[in-house]
# Entry
Amino acid sequence: MTQHEAAGAAKSAAKSAAKSAASSAATAAANSAAPSAAQSAARSAANSAAQSTEVEPLLAVRDLRAWFLTDQGVAKAVDGISFAVREGETLGIVGESGCGKTVTSLAILGLLPNPPARLMDGSSVSFRGQELVGAEEKRLRALRGNEISMIFQEPMSSLNPVFTVGDQIAETLRLHRRMDRKAAHGEAVRLLDEVGIPEPGRRVDEYPHQLSGGMRQRVMIAMAIACAPKLLIADEPTTALDVTIQAQILELLAELRRAHGMAVMLITHDLGVVAEVCDRVIVMYAGQIVESGTVEDIFVRPAHPYTRGLLASLPSVGTPGRRLASIPGTVPSPLHWPEGCRFRARCPSAGEGCERAQELVALGDGRAARCWRVGT
Amino acid sequence: MTRPVRGDAPRAEPAPPPTGRAAIDRNGPPLLEVRDLAKHFPVRRGSFGRVRAHVRAVDGVSFDLWRGETLGLVGESGCGKSTTGRALLRLIEPTGGDVRFDGQDVRALDRTGLRALRRRMQIVFQDPVGSLNPRLSVGAMLEEVLTVHGLGLPNRRDRAVELLERVGLSADHIDRYPHEFSGGQRQRLGIARALSVEPDFLVLDEPVSALDVSVQAQVINLLQDLQAELGLTYLFIAHDLAVVEHVSDRVAVMYLGRIVELAEASALYAEARHPYTRSLLSAVPRPDPVGRASRSRIVLEGDVPSPIDPPSGCPFHPRCPHPAKDASCRGIVPGLEGRAESGRGGERVGHFVACHHPYHGTPAP
Amino acid sequence: MADTMAASTTARARARGGRRLSAFLPGAPQLAAGRWGAGGLALLVWLGCLWVLVARLARVVEALGGSWDERLALATLVAALATVWGWSWWDAGRAEGPRRVGVSQWDLAVRAFSKNRTAVAGLMVIVVLYLIALLTPLLAPHDPALQGDLISERYVGLSGAHPLGTDQFARDVLSRLLYGARISLLIGFVSVGISVTIGTLLGAIAGFMGGILDGIIMRVVDMVISFPQLVLLITIIALFEPSIFLIVAVLGLTLWPGTARIVRGEVLTLREREFVQAATALGYSKRRIILRHLIPNALAPVIVAATLGIGNTIVLEAGLSFLGLGVQPPTPSWGTMVADGRNVLLNAWWLSTFPGLAIVFTVLSFNLVGDGLRDALDPRLRS
Ligand SMILES: Nc1ncnc2c1ncn2[C@@H]1O[C@H](COP(=O)(O)OP(=O)(O)OP(=O)(O)O)[C@@H](O)[C@H]1O
Ligand SMILES: Nc1ncnc2c1ncn2[C@@H]1O[C@H](COP(=O)(O)OP(=O)(O)OP(=O)(O)O)[C@@H](O)[C@H]1O
Ligand code: SF4
Ligand code: SF4
Ligand SMILES: [Mg+2]
Ligand SMILES: [Mg+2]
# Structure
């Protein structure tokens, strides 16, 4: 049974299933990735049948593989990941530097430079039922900044220094909402006000360098929500900011999400941020998903040794003096992922069986983990 | 009310340290005494231009640091943490104040004196890429330090290997170049370089900020092990409050070039008295999704003002959420004051705060 | 264990084979290993020098007791042969040995450079040109200043006795071209060498020290840059007897500000890098920091600029000589040769064409190498 059959089974089962269960069966089925895992796929399909609610998530990513063909070899930056984002939810994607978070988000919007990047056969990204992989550039453009928008880590380099912030917001409005110049300017002022910029009437005519880092990020957010997107992809939106400013931005994002009912895909390496704002979490390691589940599952009952290691290595306010549990070694290079379980060389529970490649196995309640010792 | 001044003979027995770390003897004179340290950068146009204004990067910082102790220095970007650390070592010349290291007046030292001092005070930097010369192999880098200071005889290479092993690397690494190491390993190299002159005191300027969490933990553990083995004294600069609490005996919170609160780590985190410290603590995202709904948060308005033209009176007053904020906050600069705790190493250690209306009791959870 | 031992034995055996091959044909083992750049260059130099030795044996023997010019050529020949042979021997043994640890940034740059075929081709041309320039006394078929029979041997076209024809004084064009190469390449190399040395030191001092010293040095740079080079040259040549020495000196002393600016800019950014602060914190002297930590890191753009600068200087010298302000007759230079031939271009095309082509190829090679170096030395292009 292949992954697609599993997804199909989940879908047909979903029609008859009760509408109450909250967790995503479609995701679990999609999460169980690779073809050969007959047993796990069957199990996840069974799970799906029991609790499925949705027929079509807002965004479904299936078996996404984004590879970079470089001089030194093939960098398998994203290597077969599947997940779904449901309407209105906040999905966190966490993982250490280089695990493929940014590449995933760029791949969704078709923004990876090609060459050197290539989406491998079988990769699929579907947004409200439309397939985006291989879609015409024109259709993607109509979608970007409109139904799906994105904010980046570095607010200075993502704003154009030679235009006022008002012009840049208005440009989006005129492009996607076909507003005239005056209406767009007025709407830009309203948006700046909505994202909490003081004196929006004056700020709208200022240039990016005249704003502080936090305000620039607010301008980026204003641009991103200008067209009332269904999905906002935020790639490390607060990493460059101070904690007090980070708190402001996170609160703003939460407010906007409630007000507009948009889904947010929040990419970060800060586990604290994820715990504060996300509903569901995906933990990535070495280009793969190693664990996914609700935020409580991940933080209170982490299943995968990597997730557990990450949480244990966090120094937390209130527990001083304790020696930190660290994960030995470093993240391997995407040019040479280890054979078998990619976490094996650093894993404290590694043992027999770990030299075989692991599948992402559904654990029930929408949870899944990629570890030989979890759930079997 | 006392300021943390040096001088008086010690009185009380040092209390057992609260965190289970090695006891710090605060009875003797401090290793490092800093009084009213200031660094004002001139802002000028062109190479012969006139000075237009001053960036008051560090504006009157005072603290003491005892042998074997770790003082954490936290604050938001641009508040002057790095400038403080560098001014202590005279990597940048302070424009005012007093620095005494082991009784020596650091600001009065001439070139030879400074060179001798730099064998005793070292610094570890944040940027794992920028802090190592990309053209020198690890062995060349370490052997150069040893040569310059006439150390490591008879065999400098053996000593270099020893240093590498001390920071958790191995002899195999000695002929490699910085770009062949990962971020965490490079940070270890920076530590090995600082240790090569056998210093007593290290300024750690955000040593783990650029690292991934799993690697960050490795480096923190290494720093703590080294401190225990070699009796090092640390000034640990960071913006991550959780990391600072984890490693520090005492913590100083900086805002716009000044220390606004200085206390034992446990006291500061349990019962912060300055409104800024409280907001900072409440803004830290915690990896605890269960408690998030019930936690009350203070979200500060606005941004940090420019250090070129800091607000009058209390520098925090434009953003301060304290209900009792009044005219004196706008007019009078609050000094760093507090009551030294008896029974905790004499008068010089206690809870100090620069606020006209400091809080009492525990902050909101 | 046994595996690794077996592997190292075969590696050693192969290294021995490579060495044996390199004893006869230096460069061949490198070519066999697919390193066509290094191998090709070695082989080219080896065969070329051997050819000179065999074909011009009589002159080589004569040179033993000849002028210092001829002795220099002889020394170059011997040195080139020895270098190529020794390098290939050493390299063949090393390449098969255990993998070297510690790959420096220079090693990486060399690797990146040798992947760039056009740049390596340019480098080969340059090396061959410099060899030819040094070996000219052994190579040139005639004395470049020797005038033939002015009636029967003027403007003779390409022929066996004069492969590139003769000029208005019945002198051999090929010989003049070869001697001209010495002048052009020498002027390019030495004047750029002078300007790079001055520029690097002054730029590094200005950037690192800052303050008043920086202000003074940079104002001098502005002054020198704003002084028109051509006017300076013409004035100096009007005042003094024009000579190669004078041209080199004037070019060398007027071209350094460009380098100084590049180095100062690099040093200004490097100075803020934490490894330089670490060096200060470790108690290093300013001299040590500048020479050992700043300059090596600021050198990459200087090397590129110098390579391109040699090309430019060759063009500049040719232009000056063309105008009669450069090298004075009868000393041959590519610029004067082009100028001599321009009136008879239709009747005796070979007079201007060959020196013209020589200029174009030389400058093109320097530009190819310069671009190749720019890419190879750019750390951003590497992962
Ligand atoms: N243009 C590219 N060419 C080659 N490799 C690339 C390119 N872009 C990214 N990669 C590789 O893809 C891998 C994943 O990168 P990605 O930017 O997604 O990491 P990330 O998880 O976002 O990390 P970070 O937290 O540092 O932002 C990295 O190892 C990187 O080296
Ligand atoms: N060389 C300099 N010239 C002028 N101003 C400077 C200079 N160095 C630092 N400053 C200013 O001094 C202030 C304090 O800088 P400092 O680097 O000490 O801050 P920091 O607390 O270390 O911040 P971060 O967390 O970003 O490292 C900043 O406003 C900065 O712009
Ligand atoms: S599969 Fe094995 S190595 Fe991988 S995470 Fe699980 S226990 Fe560790
Ligand atoms: S002095 Fe006034 S403004 Fe400053 S922190 Fe205290 S209460 Fe706030
Ligand atoms: Mg990223
Ligand atoms: Mg700093």
The two ends of chain C are 34 Å apart (CA to CA).
